[in-house]
Each structure stands twice: as C-alpha cells, then as structure tokens.
Amino acid sequence: MKLSQFNFNLPDDAIALYPHVSERTIKRSDGTTQTFQVTRRDEARMMVIHRKSQTIDLYNKDVKGEPTEDDYIKFKDVSKYFDDGDVMVFNDTKVFPARLYGTKEKTDAKIEVFLLRELNAEMRLWDVLVEPARKIRIGNKLFFDDTGTMVAEVIDNTTSRGRTLRFLYDCPHDEFKRELYALGQAPLPHYIIDHTHEETVSAPTPNDPNATKTVAVQDRPYREEDMDDFQTVFAKEEGAVTAPATGLHFSREMMKMLEIKGINTAFITLHCGLGNFNQIEVEDLTKHKMESEQMFINKEACDTVNKAKLAGKRICVVGTSVAKATETAVGTDNLLKEYEGWTNKFIFPPYEFGLANAMLANFYHPESTLMMSACAFGGYDITMKAYELALKNGYKFGCFGDGMLILDD
User: Fold this and answer.
1) Domains of the chain: which residue ranges?
2) Contact at 8 Å (CB) between 231 and 400?
3) Which PANTHER family match (predicted)?
C-alpha cells in the first residue's frame, strides 16, 4: 500500500493532552452538592470493530439489542467481549523519565537531552538525542542541576541528533540512576508537549506603545503526575522511552475484573522506542525501515497463550507493540515461541496475522506506523471507516485518547 492512503486531517482539538477525566457529583447531608473531576483511564471510549461482518459498534445496546444513542461503549467494558479461558497479552515494559533539560558550558544555552539507553553502566555511558543538535559537539560539557553535580561530556556523534554522553558522577550505580532519573521528566510525545495555541500580547516599542505581537502559548505544561499517567499499571521491566499506549487504559480494577471472569493474562516485554514516531519519507511502504526495539518473550507467556490457542480461545494483543512482538516470535505452526533479541518488524496491510484473533488499539496519528498496524489487523476499509466515525463523533486521538477493539467475528 501507499503512504498517502493513510493520510487524513486530524484537528488539533482531537488530540488528547491528558488521560480521560470523568465528573463525579456528591450530595452532602445538608442537601448541597459538589462536582469534581477524577482521572479514570478506563472510562475512555472504545469503538468495537467486527472485521468479518464489517460492522462497527459505538454504543451499548438495550435489552432488545438496539444501540442506545449517546451511551458510548467505554474501555472498561472490554471484559464483556471475552470469555473464560481467553487470553489478553500485555506489554510490561516500564517507561523511565527520559527527557532532561540541561545547559551547555560557557554559553548556558538550554539543551534538551533525551535518554535512549544505557550503553555501559560502569562508565556511565548513555545513547541520547540532543536538541538543538547543531550546538552540541564532541568535548562539550552539559550541566543538569544548579549545583553542578550532574555533568555529562559528549564523547561521540552517532547520528545527526544522536550523541554518546559520559556522565561524570562518581558514586554507586544505583545512586547515580536514582539521581539522574530525579532530574528527568516523563517522555511525553512531542505532539502533546508541543501542543500550542496563538495569543496576542502587548509588545510596546518606543515608536508604538500600543504595539502587539502573536506568540505561541504551550497548552500542556509538565505536571508531577505525568510519570504515573504515562505508565501502565502492570509496568515491570524498565527500558521504554515511550509508553505502550493502549495499555495505559487499563486500571487495577479492570485487571481484577479480567481475573474474576477467568480471562487469562500473559506478559511479554518490548521496549518501545522513538522509531514509532519517525515520519515515513517514502510513498512505497515496502521501502520503509523501522528502528529496532529490544523484546523478550518467556516460556510462561508462551505456555499461557499456546494453551488457549490450541483450545480455540480468543488471543487478544493489547496494542501494536504486542502485535509486533508476537508476530516476530510466532512460528509456522501459529504458536508463540520464546524469544530474546530485537525486532524491526513493520506491519502494514495486507498482512496475515499468525497468532492473535483480537486486538486492542488506540486511535493514532495519520500516516503513522501504529495506525498501519491496526489497519493491517482490522482490514483497511473498515478501520478507515472507524477513523472517520471517530472524528465525526468527537473521539480523542493519541496515547491518552480513546480506543478500539477489533474482533474476528
């Protein structure tokens, strides 16, 4: 397929900047009421796509089986679509606070440093991205706190924006990591932190005291709770620089509900990287190369998934990262194999999945590899129709947005 087939107009106000928030009203004993907002990641909306019947459900149904207008299906309703013995496969990668801001020696220029991975624990070597890259050369020192304790030296150029840093911090490794992460922020995607609107402000000059100018104002300041919001409740294995977004919808209550209903869970690890956000620069998708991501699938996950697969149960992959990992490790017998290594698998239509027969996904940005993976599973035509309905009905896009469930019925 062609890149242009996945293009559509995504309005700025359709991008979710925060996790889903619900209003709650309490009534006091004196008869007065108070309304307040609470973050409920599991109350985002969820569209259901039936890929064989080529139908889409937006609303819950009444006792007669008719859709109830405005009663949208919510993500927390997902367990209704699965039965005892079915399996949901999750990505238990853990995001670390990868975005730091420092200053360059002598000039005090502000520099963003994005940690990618630790290369050598003993030498404190890290693979990073820097912005603006043109100002950062080999030999430069970067300072990350007011005391000058956390300092890094640039020792190599890896790509146009990539650098290797050596942190000059003499202490036990655990203490170093703790201090480094304390300076970092949640690595929210740039489509969130760069979300701005224009405002006209006063800018008087000697010749015109009433002069104004238009400036870009950030819509989404950093918050202390961002690190918790950008982490799944089942995160375990540290190594991701962006969250497996679909997993963000799951609450602890939802996980317990799956357990009560007899729906089994399996956990694989794929450390999600920034390659998921790289702009595709070729029209012919067969010529696009994905960046590699490290992944692990153990025997316990294989046993859980394969037992259900052989019994004819539903295997639901939670998110495109899980789809990528399981399709990397599935055998010719359509069973999951143990795996430890890297994958650069790029899934786009047409593609025949070997393992899963259900998929949970978010609504993704146009021309993104994540959107293409969802289209490959659901089928291009019906999934694009779902995107059209999402825009028409005010669904939210991105990692904090609404979701879709794709079923093989």
Assistant:
1) 3-25+37-95+227-407, 99-183
2) no
3) S-ADENOSYLMETHIONINE:TRNA RIBOSYLTRANSFERASE-ISOMERASE (PTHR30307:SF0)
Q: Nearest to residue 144, comparing CAs of 99, 175, 174? A: 99
**Superfamily of domain 3-25+37-95+227-407, CATH level 4:** QueA-like (3.40.1780.10)
135 Cβ contact list (under 8 Å, min separation 6) = 104, 107, 109, 111
Fold identical between 3-25+37-95+227-407 and 99-183?
Answer: no
Phi, psi of 371 (to 5 degrees): -60, -40
In this predicted model, what pLDDT tens digit does every residue of 124-145 receive, in sequence order?
A: 999 999 999 888 999 999 998 7
Q: What is the longest distance spanned by two Cα atoms in the chain?
A: 81
| Residue 304 token pair | 């859980």
Q: Does domain 99-183 have CATH number 2.40.10.240?
A: yes
Exposed, middle or buried, 370 (CB in 10 Å: 0-12/13-18/19+)? Answer: buried
Rounded Cα distance, 192 and 248, in Å? 16
Which pair of structure tokens corresponds to residue 287?
Answer: 């010529």
CA distances from 368 to 239, 275, 288, 365, 374 (A): 22, 10, 12, 6, 10
Buried b (16+ CB within 10 A) or exposed e, 188-199: bbebbbebeeee
Contact criterion met (CB below 8 Å) for 327 and 299: no
Q: Tokens in use for 276? A: 């998921």
With a cut of 50, which residues of the chain have pLDDT below it?
A: none
- pTM of the full predicted structure? 0.90
- Tell me the per-residue pLDDT of 272-292, one tens digit each, with 9 for 90 and over: 999 888 899 999 999 999 999
Q: Give the whole-angstrom CA distance, residue 335 versus residue 274.
A: 29
Degrees, nearest 5: CA angle 407-241-94: 70
Q: CA 345, 243, 43 angle in degrees (round to 5)?
A: 120
Q: Exposed (0-12), middle (13-18) or buried (19+): which is 204, by Cβ within 10 Å?
A: exposed
Question: Between the CA atoms of 10, 292, 339 and 328, what dihedral angle is there, to the nearest 10 degrees?
Answer: 50
What is the rounded CA–CA span in Å between residue 183 and residue 197? 28
How many CB atoms neighbour CB 89 within 10 A?
Answer: 29
**Crossing angle (nearest 10°) for helices 369-378 and 380-392:** 120
Residue that has been written with the tokens 């490794």 in this structure: 173
Quote the tokens at residue 160.
């146009």
